[in-house]
Structure formats: structure tokens, C-alpha cells
Write a structure and sequence with these properties.
There is one protein chain. The chain is mainly α and 135 residues long. The chain contains 5 helices and 2 strands, in the order ββααααα. It has a two-stranded antiparallel sheet with strand order 1-2.
Length: 135
Amino acid sequence: MATAVLSGETNRSKSRAQGQVNVRMNAAVKDAGDEALAEVGLSPSEVVRALWEAVGARGEKREQVLAALGITQADVARKERRAKRQELVSRMAERYGSLGGTNGVDPAALPALDDEAWDELAWEDYIEHRAGAMQ
């Protein structure tokens, strides 16, 4: 699996600001990719630029690129739900911690919750927050 990090640094000597992408991946995957790209005369930078441009585009072109990469709308929705859940857990942990700590409860040991349970927790968290703000 590859991971990418976009650097916020810019190169001011160029007319357009430049960003940098650093990727970590399995060495065998990198070697195979480098070899395949060399066979067709492309550099990794050229391929990444083309990918970023295609994914950054709107509409059908983006959907085609994501589909070619095996990324479905369901995958995107799942990641969005996971991010919302993590935000909710962080907010609840912060509030709970402000009340005096975890009382020995290991958050990692808590049972997994389905979407409906998370929605209920989010609603309860919202109501508690609103009630606290009214006092």
C-alpha cells in the first residue's frame, strides 16, 4: 500500500507555486512500477502529475480515474463516515476527559458500533452540547 503526503512548501523561484508529494511504498512495488514506466518512457513525476490533474478534474473524468484505480463511491462514502466517526469520538473523549478522565475505560476496548448507533451517539452529543451552551 502506498501513502502520499503533500508538502505545503513552495518554490518561489518559479512563476507558479510548486508542491511536493512524497510517497512510501513497498520496494518491490516501486521497482516494478519504475521498470514499467521506463519501458514506456515516463517518469514517476510525469505519472503523478497526470494522476493529480485527472483526479483534481471535476465530473466524468474524475470518476473514470477513480474507477480505474478501483476506488468506488461506496469507498469514498465509507471513508467520509469513518472520518466523521473519528471526529465524533475525539470530541466526546475531549468532553469526557474534561469531566475528570476515563475512569479506567480503554476506548480501544469499546465495542464496534454500526452506522445507526453512531448516528444516535452523534445526536446525543449534539443535544448535550446544545443543553450545555444554553446554561
